[in-house]
Amino acid sequence: MRKLLILALVGLAAQLVDGALGMAYGLTSSTLLLVAGVAPAAASASVHLAEIGTTLAAGVSHWRFGNVDWPVVSRIALPGAVGAFAGATVLSSISTEAAAPWMAAILFSLGAYLLVRFSRPLRANRAAGRLRGRFLAPLGLVAGFVDATGGGGWGPVATPALLVSGRMAPRKVIGSVDTAEIVVAGAASVGFLIGLGAEGFLLPTVVALLLGGLVAAPLAAWLVRIVPAQLLGAAVGGVIVLTNSRTLLRAGELGGPVPSLVYAALGAGWLVALALAVRALRRARRARAIASAALPAAPTPESVASGERGLAAVVEG
Known about the structure:
Strand content: under 5%
Number of helices: 12
Order of helices and strands: HHHHHHHHHHHH
Structural class: mainly alpha
Shape: globular
Number of strands: 0
């Protein structure tokens, strides 16, 4: 019972982060299961089965708060499902360890770009237009495959790629990625059911993770709506950088004090980026306040009526 309670709290925390940042539910939950000695395929299968419920709750919550871009969801979900199904069915026979460092390097670069981008004042990219299927389909396919084979990865791959495009508001990116994950998690679960059978799912663990995630989903959807895009982008960038730096350090077999020094440097850089993001956000708000104060006040019905009476009096005089 104590273990299940801990898993429920992990599910709650993981969904809170995932709903607010568009990533980390599978990564957090799968990591805990692997540390506990669960086989990779069983861990990924259980997490994805739980994600069917948590992503459904998150998707409904994001929809109610206006965080979902349905055309993007429709164009990324189906390719993501194909990739997830393929990844789930071949997980037992194909190792992704060799590809992990390369994927981590790509994600690390995207995260660093986000840190730089969101630490400076944001400017609307009005000429960019809408995202097209030729970009979303390959992105969904890769993200779905990585998600199923790695026990998590749909958000870390899809969210930064959409944020870097600059064509969607961060809250729309997160809401759309979370909503599309409903289809991805379902396809992965079907693939694991075919490859592992029903015994491959750890049902008590699934229920614990699901309950924790369901509690956190509405709160996370509300949080992403009120958190400024400037801070949200910097936070996402820092999470991606720190998460993937661990994989890169392990691939490089760096030991001794090197990992600690690297983490300290990256953490300090993240704090600097957040401080710059806060400063840029304050400057933008101050500029908007000054611009609003400089605009003439809109006429009220009382002032219009008073002006009309004054004009009539002048005419009669």
